[in-house]
Each structure stands twice: as C-alpha cells, then as structure tokens.
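Troubleshooting: if your tokenizer reports a length mismatch, compare your output against this known-good record of 129 residues.
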Amino acid sequence: MIVHVLRFAFKEGATGAVREHVLVVMRRTASAVSVASATVGRGLGEEDGGVHAYCVGIADLDALRRYRHDPLHVAGDPQIAPRLAEIAIGPDLFDDVAADLAARILALHEDKAALHPHGAAGLAALLTA
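Known-good structure output:
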C-alpha cells in the first residue's frame, strides 16, 4: 500500500464556493478506480480552515501509475493549482520494503510531468516542503 498525502492552503480571499469547488474536484480525483481509500478535508486542529489535506491509499506501484495518468487526475490538476497558495507533499507512507521504491515513485512523477508540463509547472510553483 502506498499512502499519498498532500497538505494545502487556499489563496487568501478564496470564497467558500471556490474552496468547495476545489474540494469537489479533489474528491472526484480521489474516486479514480486505482484508489483503494481516500479522504479530503480540513486538517485536524485547523478550525479556521487554513490547512486542508488530501490523502489517498493506492495498492501498489502499478495502481499508482494508473492513478497518475487517470483522466480524472490529469483534468483535476489545472482546476486545483490556480486556487491554492501552497501545497506540501507528504509525508508519504508505504509498506513495500523495496529499496528503490522512492526512486520508482519519483520516476512516475517525472513521466507525468513530461507528458503534462503545464500542469506540472503550476503545481511545482506551489510546493513548500
């Protein structure tokens, strides 16, 4: 199992409707067939709604590859990125003990970025840690 976690904050001034739209798009992305489990919502202890989280559980590397290239995921990125102030990846977790798993996951990310450079650039500009 690979657990992928994103923590993100909306741009200042984002309306409730904009926030809800982004969360709907994220939930749609998380409904991809290759996702075994998911949650999208406000971070715990964030009563003011400042930090939200997106977490998906994906069975294995093959499922992660399908998820990264799923039309729901590809279509969601450009709808989400312009509305966020920042995004942090991880910590991601996995139960696969293969020493090269992190490198293989990074290679999947780079493959998607090469196929969709505009979307990758939009997300890269938001990365914090």
